[in-house]
Amino acid sequence: MSTVCAIILDYFGSSKTIACLTSLLDQGLDSVVVVDNSGDRQANIQLQEALTEFRRRELPFTIHQIVNPKNLGYAAGVNNALRWLEKNNPHQYYLLINNDANATPGMLPELLKFMRGHDRTAITAPMISMGQKEIAYSWYHRFTGLMFSHHIIGAFPYLTGCCLLVDQQIVNCGLFDEDFFMYGEDVELCWRLRLSGWNISCVKEATVLHEGVGSSFQGGNFYEYYMARGHILLARKLNKRRWGMPFLYIGRLLTLSARAVLRSIRFRSMIPITGWISALRKHNVFNP
Questions:
Q1: Which of 72, 149, 163, 278 could tie 76 with a disulfide, CB 3.0–4.6 Å?
Q2: Is 107's pLDDT higher than 70?
């Protein structure tokens, strides 16, 4: 069985995908799967041309491409790639990396070294460098839906999904909960692994450079709606007991309503408020 395969989702970003692939050349990968998640013929042509040019190099890994007929979202896009790999070319580990992220030298070897030395670790992640800011763990507060850069009471740690090394042992017909289109699937995964007795670890000797929001932008319709929707879904997904559900929803109603108002003031736009209201109105978000 091959050791590591990287999975990269592309959404109207062929130049970013090539930059990401370039950063992976010396990481020791066996193969890479590039998933075209754009659902657009012109974007697919641009990606095909970029990959054809990239393949003219002497590559240390093979490249496979999956073309989705439409944008399936992050969770389903990754899951589809994992299912294809498990059926056709399974690996011991899978490196999930955003196309707007670039690996730094030695990143993957450090992640592998840590993973192999810790039996109950299911996922490792590098430090995320975003200019002047570095992120290890993020902390998600179950009852308010607020995220923090440090531990507070009621919050649990999770690893941001921009770059994750995943052990094949936890891949079972996919990895992420496909109820999430985008935003929140990494939080739910880390919570689920925690309940199952697995560990997640940030390896501070490894670093990935990350652009940020990627295929969306803060203050835009897409980002505000799906971020709000993700928080509402997490209220149900992170509930331990039935009686706790009202508290998780009420907490989010208060804090995320305030968040939407503050973001509307910050961006001088009603989009954060309308995105939050739209997410609240979607009946299937509230019900299993």
A1: 72
A2: yes
For residue 215, the 8-state DSSP code is T
pTM: 0.92
CB 11 within 8 A of CB 215: yes
Residues 85 and 202 in one domain: yes
**Residue reference for tokens 């739209």:** 278
Instruction: Determine the distance from the C-alpha atom of residue 3 to the mean position of all C-alpha atoms in its chain, rounded to a whole number.
Output: 21
To 5 degrees, how large is the angle CA 75–CA 76–CA 79? 90
- In a 13 Å sphere around the CA of 82, the CA atoms on its Cβ side amount to 23
Which of residues 184, 210, 236 is at a domain's end?
Answer: 210
Q: How many other C-beta atoms can be found within 10 angstroms of the C-beta atom of residue 6? A: 26
pLDDT one-digit tens code per residue, 178-234: 999 989 999 999 999 999 999 999 999 999 999 865 545 566 888 899 999 999 999
